Amino acid sequence: MLEDPLSLLCLYGLWVIVTMVAQVLAAAAQVGLVTLSYPRDNMPPLTGVAGRLERALRNSVVALALVAPPVLVLALRAPEGLAPAGAVTLAMQVFLVSRILFVPVYAAGIPFLRTLIWAAGFIATLWLYLQAL
Prior knowledge:
Elements: H1 5-31, H2 33-37, H3 48-77, H4 85-108, H5 111-132
Helix pairs in contact: 1-3, 1-4, 3-4, 3-5, 4-5
């Protein structure tokens, strides 16, 4: 499972769901479930861990939207062998590990480490696009 780029993509999707649940729980602890059940037009901004988890979730959804196209293109081309399979898997493993580490580091508010972890995932995504083109 950890050697198939499509499975790794699905695992990342599951991680985004875990992040979403953590964000909702943190928001509920801060503003209450009643506030979360209403339209959020007048909801106060989330702060601290809840706010950082909200931003980490937003960033994670964007990362998912960016990484999915090259992975799907490469998977469709796999029978033709246009990209080195081991390198594609490694790029997805780097992406997945970096994105899993990103959320708790962001939530903890660790500045420079968060950026380095983000950059590793972003570089892996760029590499996947270069292979897919």
